[in-house]
Amino acid sequence: MNAVISKIFSNWLRKLVALVLAIIIWFIVNQTLISTRTINNVPIRIINLPPEKILEGIQTNGHLIKQLNLTVTGNKTIIDELSSYDLEVVLDATDKPDEFMGTISKKNLSSLNPEIDLSKVIKRVQYPSFIVRMTNLVTEQIPIIITKPIGEAPRGYQFLNIWPYRLLLTVQGPEDTLKRLKEKELRLTLNLNEVKKSQLDALDHVEQEVISFFVPDYWTQIKVPSLSDVPISIDDPNAKLLRIDFIRSSFSPLNYAIPVSLFFPIETLNKLNPDTVQLAESTLLKKIHGQGVLQIPLLVNGLGPRFLNLIEKMIQIEIIVIPHAKQERLSWNVQLVNPRQLENQYVQAFNGELVDPDILLLAPILREEYLRNRFRSYVNRLLLFKTDETKLNLSISLKKNVITIEEMDSSVSLTTPSNL
């Protein structure tokens, strides 16, 4: 054992010098080893753009959407570890024309990693040719259409409407990009699932016809990938008024019988017309002074009391009369008589006695637009239900120029539109 130890430590000074020299040689050799590899998706940043110019596809962080695959040659130790997160290409647009070839040398590479000095690491850069295109920087107002929300309303409530249904977004960007966006318009779709029942319950007051949920600011952001990599806040002042209107989910009885009328298409008037076709009385339909009237008790659901009081005398069922050979059952729909006049009366009623305090926030012209939009939303959801709260389905047939109206089981699917 002592002989082994003695052998190890014999000539120790020479051995130490040899070890130090070996380490130095390894370090020098390692530092001088050259490697070449391709780094994919390296970001590009353009600096010193003229104030009136911008680049197509530039992002908020100054990078272009376009990225490059760079082949770099340099110190093997560092090159082998480099990624696209460690560097970017920086091009100077000073005194450049609107279109110029991108030229890259190692001087155009900027380190995003403070621990790496690219000027000492990279010897040569190869890249695919590309063109940088500058365009005019302009300011435009882009229309935003607020679409019908997705999702479901909280339990006990029904979605009525959303208002305003059109906003404007003021943005700066490339002229051609903004032109395309303006022609196409943008879409913003809200999600009813994000509205909590507790929020509507807190807003629900007996005297209010409609519960208006004003959307929070973070909902009024829109993604425009061609302009920004982050959502853009809508700066239209009317965005503060953006609301989702809900109505309580409740059934109300109709206090008046509903007249039934016939519509005869012009192309079949020679055979089918008021002189040749008649409505047959049944358990559902009675005739009063020659006018067919649907006399079964009916309900409506999710309509404001002011709207219902105004229109319940003006509801009718219209049957479209066409030859039996073209359609086994006749189509029918629920409609209002003179809806324009009823709409005007609805608006005037609210202007005379404003019950909903939220409407007071609106300027007169916006108030009228909002109320007309609410009225039309009610009209679109006007459906008839039976007393057991199932949807009214009618089977209407034409045989030997006699129209018969019968009730159909709600579970049966109709092949023609009904109760629309």
From TrEMBL:
<protein>
    <submittedName>
        <fullName>Uncharacterized protein</fullName>
    </submittedName>
</protein>
<feature type="transmembrane region" description="Helical">
    <location>
        <begin position="12"/>
        <end position="29"/>
    </location>
</feature>
<keyword id="KW-0472">Membrane</keyword>
<keyword id="KW-1133">Transmembrane helix</keyword>
<dbReference type="InterPro" id="IPR053154">
    <property type="entry name" value="c-di-AMP_regulator"/>
</dbReference>
<keyword id="KW-0812">Transmembrane</keyword>
